[in-house]
Amino acid sequence: MREWKSFRRLVFILPLPFGLNTEWAWLAVSAWIFWLLAQHYRWLLREQAEDQLPELRLPTAFVKSRSLIIALIVIQVWNLMQAVFTSLSPYDSWLAFYQGVSYTAFLCLSLLLINSRERTEQIIWTVIAAATLQAVYGTFMVLSEVEWGFFQPKAAFLGNATGTFTNRNHMAGYLEVALALGVGYILANPSHYSGNIRQRFLQFLSMLTGKKVLLRLLLAIIVIALVMTRSRMGNTAFFASMILTGVMALYFMRYKTRSTVILLSSMLVIDMAIVGTYFGADELIERLKESSQETESRDEVARDVIDIWKEYPVFGTGSGTFTHVYPSLKSEAVVTSRIYNNAHNDILQFLSEFGLPAFLVLCWVVGYALSNVVNAMRKRHSHFSKGIGFGSMMAIIALMIHSTVDFNLQIPANALMFMLVLALSAISRWTPRKIHRDRRNV
User: Fold this and answer.
1) 169: closest CA among 234, 123, 222, 106?
2) The dihedral of CA 116, 207, 177, 98: what is its sign?
3) What is the gyration radius of the CA atoms in the chain, in angstroms?
4) How does this chain sit within the bilayer (predicted)?
5) CB 121 within 8 A of CB 49
């Protein structure tokens, strides 16, 4: 149980120190990840020796995800080759290589430890708890006008909810994932009413005092904070991903329930019409209206990034090099005085830094995860597996939409959350209803 509790604590603190977007924070967390993985591997070896097993006893989802893990390892090897031979900024590529290895280790750790329905529920509640803390803290800082971040006054985005992140868009990206997993969890546990009127009434009362109502309340709080970030694409990505995933779920799921349609409809109506009205939708709409070529230079930056990729199409400039490479390659069309540490487009930044071969492998990783959740919704009989698949698909779509105009995947906390979602997509597809019970709690 020690390793599992430690893993949950790790997931909970991911967003706390600036979203890990500072060297000391992500170095500490990566060391934590490697230590947990080493501890679990040592226990697997001891179990194999004691039980005289021909091979390690690994969870089904981990075994079935070997191609996913191999693909991520290939990307890290590519990063290593860039750092040694081709990178325009080798030091940055070495740091990116270390980060990439820690992300891959975190995915493996998630697949190894989240090996049952109970643990899947626990990790989702851990994410919801962490997101609720961010939501309450960020909202309170705005409403009270105290405006502090992580143990220090905020230097930017005053009047916007940022939680302990330094950027409102990064907090929005984290909340998108938490909301998606929360919606999926509710779908994974549909309410069933049967019997006479009295029995149905008692079942309804039981539902009102259960975890689902609490979760729905927490999701409403998180949505309030999402709106108060004033993140245009963050809010757009959340609602668009819920609609798109809902449509696909209704198409792919063989056994649909009325609760699925009712839940999605209530989320859209209540969150948009009521919560948004009272907690800052007007300001968010105003920000959407104010978007123009005069106030944004991201389109020009995106064109520059494409030109950079054309100059280095195969090997790229090197992972993690954008901050130091872009200033010397910036075109005259970008006239803003702001400094671009990232491209504000994860997709194009990965393409320019990694080069086309590694970028295609990244695309395959996302496609593989989406195929897992589609198959979970199509082929699994378990409502729980379908719901977790729904939440994973919604989270992936939300982050992909948001990534077209921002750099959430450059923030370690959000990148690790994406790894967790990839693991949950495999778990939704492959984790059996009955699992082997460890003799030792891990």
Assistant:
1) 234
2) negative
3) 22
4) Multi-pass membrane protein
5) no
